[in-house]
Amino acid sequence: MTDRPDAPPVRQLRLVVEAEDYDAALTFYRDLLGLPQEAAFTGEGDARVAILDAGRATLEIANPAQKRMIDDVEVGRQVAPPLRVAFEVSDATAVTTALVDGGAHLVAPPVRTPWNSLNARLEAPAGLQITVFQELDAEAPRSPADDDRTA
């Protein structure tokens, strides 16, 4: 499956999102949120795709009770669809303001979580509900095996 026996079997996670307003979504995620563009391709019939670098990727699997708890902490009520995308940023408050100014709908302002991060919830282009979060404790463990924190 891999060239090296110690290499992980999955090398990259790509979340593919269909955006009716491609230009607005690209402006939001690339220019406002600041995800660098790695590549872009066009095809017949005005087919377009941009691949944006979102840093390190993880796949977070949560049971319904955990999903409800995160919604309660971040928003105070149940609002998240089955898929929510979280982005770690260096300044959750400033990024939240910039994203709202750029057209995102604020679901809940930044709030300090029990797992010591500052999280804000937004409705973003392409039908995504997103969390922007800032880790407040630089010494906090980053491994799920060491810490049950979640974004």
Overview of the structural elements:
The chain is of the alpha+beta class. It has one domain (22-135): Roll (2,3-Dihydroxybiphenyl 1,2-Dioxygenase, domain 1). It has three helices and six strands, in the order αββαβαβββ. The protein has helices spanning 22-32, 64-74, 92-101, and strands spanning 37-43, 47-52, 85-88, 105-112, 117-124, 128-135. A four-stranded mixed sheet has the order 3-6-5-4, covered by helices on one side. Strands 1-2 form a two-stranded antiparallel sheet. A hairpin with a 3-residue loop joins strand 5 (117-124) and strand 6. The longest helix has 11 residues, at 22-32. The protein is globular and about 45 Å long. This is Glyoxalase-like domain protein.
Radius of gyration: 17 Å
Strand elements, count:
6
What is the approximate shape? globular
Helices and strands: which structural class? alpha+beta
The number of domains is 1
Please report the distance between the alpha carbons of the first and last residues. 31 Å
CATH topology: 2,3-Dihydroxybiphenyl 1,2-Dioxygenase, domain 1
